[in-house]
Design brief:
The structure is a single chain. By secondary structure, this protein is of the alpha+beta class. The protein folds into three domains: 1-42, no CATH class; 56-311, Beta-lactamase; 319-438, no CATH class. The chain is 32% helix and 22% strand. It is built from twelve helices and 18 strands. Strands 8, 11, 12, 13, 14 and 15 form a six-stranded antiparallel β-sheet that branches. Strand 1 (63-68) and strand 2 (74-78) form a beta hairpin. It is elongated and about 120 Å long. The chain starts with a helix and ends in a 25-residue tail after the last helix.
């Protein structure tokens, strides 16, 4: 691994030296740009440290990440947790909160601040005046396609009453999603030293946002028919700013690119979030602090790297440690005489992302009870890793069935021989405990019950038999009366015939 870092450093130094030698034939701006880009390119690529992982390409952004959307698997990672200024990719979070908290037919009134409390030239939709009213759909598409700062401002005031209150809402959502280095202070991304995020956090926000159909439809729209201004002026700008989208045309159009969000300020430089789909995978690429036009070319290079080197495999179709034939792994505390028993079912939508040159068995599963969710009948999850690098997961779901059961073999990393997962269906708890010889216990129990029934039956038959004999002997036959003997006095008196 150290050799890789040394090689990358030597390559970057060589390119930098070559650029300095030719500096006399270029302008100062070009030299400064090239030097900055080469310095950024020497930043180590953390994902290249994973054993058996395909080596990622050089990237001239200061921070970059490539993530698969359905699993959250990180395919490429470079300085991804470094705090960076996001610029207008901030609007992904604003668009997400809009989709979650509003209907598209709501009416938004543009306040004085939403129009005039912005730097000159930053009202990108244009033609919006104080007091104008537009639908929330107009605002959402203006926000995500045209990167309208006035739309972001008006949306924030409409939802929370002020941009400050809306920023608090953004930060709460970021924390809930799992962001680690994010703090928003406005809904549009115009520069503020306290407004920052990271490539990793933006990938996580995007992964979450793509699950919302309203957001996804808007952010993946190439063109939108924006209505005229309140003065009747036609808006001729209606095309998404993301130049890599399929159908966009031009140099940077990329096969499979469905959308994304652009960003730029002088402090943030170029930032770019891109979504692309191929071969059943949806990749999220984030590059931050990069110069134009390499933010387009680097994104294309990273997407190519992802699609060419990785595959998506369904877990339920490939996992061999599960069997539908028995339920020896999962024991229940339900009544053994009941009509139903709990059944653990593997979720069929779970997948892993692994290099194309390895098989499914190269991924190691770990049984994890931290993701248990009673509301959704999730008992546990199977988290997969490749050489200690997370590559995907699926859930184990609790359902009711009287016909099937299935087990996870004893070679689980969490389960030792002689242990089982016990599910208490009354208290909704799951635990690992020592297996008991349930078959022997049940056999003895049934033996005792059968013996007791035989004893009762024998007693019953014996009693019935005695009653029949009695009836036949004493009731069915008429017995002859016995002759009575004369009563004798035990002590006869010699005076019994005397008369007085």
């Amino acid at each position: 691994m150290r050799l890789k870092k040394i090689t990358a450093f030597i390559l970057s130094a060589t390119m930098l030296l070559s650029n300095v030698i030719t500096a006399g034939a270029t302008s100062t701006t070009e030299v400064t740009y090239s030097e900055a880009a080469l310095v950024r390119s020497a930043i180590p690529i953390e994902s290249n440290e994973i054993e058996g992982w395909p080596d990622g390409p050089i990237c001239y952004a200061e921070s970059a990440i490539l993530m698969e959307a359905s699993t959250g698997t990180i395919l490429y990672e470079k300085n991804a947790h470094q705090k960076q200024y996001p610029a207008s990719i901030t609007k992904i979070m604003t668009g997400l909160l809009t989709a979650e908290n509003c209907s598209l037919d709501e009416t938004v009134t543009f306040s004085h601040n939403s129009v005039f409390d912005l730097p000159v030239g930053s009202s990108i939709i244009g033609g919006v005046d104080e007091g104008d009213q537009y639908s929330m759909e107009f605002c959402l598409y203006g926000l995500l396609l045209l990167s309208g700062n006035e739309a972001a401002y008006a949306i924030a005031e409409h939802i929370s009453g002020s941009t400050t209150a809306f920023a608090d809402m953004m930060n709460e959502k970021a924390a809930a999603i799992g962001c680690l280095n994010t703090h928003f202070v406005n809904p549009h991304g115009l520069h503020d030293p306290n407004h920052y995020t990271s490539a990793y956090d933006m990938a996580m926000i995007s992964k979450y946002a793509l699950q919302n159909p309203v957001f996804k439809k808007a952010v993946c729209t190439l063109t939108y028919d924006f209505p005229p201004t309140s003065k009747g002026e036609i808006r001729y700008t209606n095309k998404n700013h993301h130049k890599m989208m399929e159908g966009y045309g031009g140099t940077y159009e990329y096969e499979g690119c469905i959308g994304g969000k652009t960003g730029y300020t002088s402090d943030a430089s170029s930032t770019l979030v891109t979504f692309a789909e191929r071969d059943g995978m949806t990749l999220i690429c984030v590059v931050m602090k990069e110069d134009k036009p390499s933010h387009w070319t680097d994104t294309a290079t990273l997407l190519d790297y992802g699609f060419q080197n990785f595959q998506k495999l369904n877990i339920s179709e490939n996992e061999k440690d599960f069997s539908i034939d028995n339920a020896n792994f999962f024991d229940t505390k339900s009544n053994v005489f009941g009509n139903t028993r709990p059944l653990i079912e593997i979720d069929k939508s779970g997948s892993i992302i692994i290099p194309k040159n390895v098989s499914f068995d190269a991924a190691t599963p770990t049984l994890n009870f931290d993701k248990a969710d009673e509301k959704n009948n999730i008992v546990a999850s199977l988290d997969y890793s490749f050489n200690n690098h997370y590559v995907g997961y699926t859930t184990l779901n609790l359902i009711k069935s009287s016909e099937e059961g299935f087990e996870f073999s004893a070679n689980s990393s969490n389960i030792k021989d002689g242990e089982s997962v016990a599910i208490d269906t009354e208290n909704n708890t799951v635990s690992i405990e020592k297996k008991k010889n349930d078959n022997a216990v049940i056999f003895v129990l049934f033996g005792i019950i059968i013996l007791a029934l035989l004893v009762v039956l024998a007693c019953y038959i014996f009693k019935k038999y005695r009653i029949l004999i009695f009836k036949e002997t004493y009731v069915g036959k008429k017995l002859k009366p016995e002759k009575k003997r004369p009563k004798k006095n035990k002590y006869p008196s010699k005076y019994k015939n005397l008369k007085f």
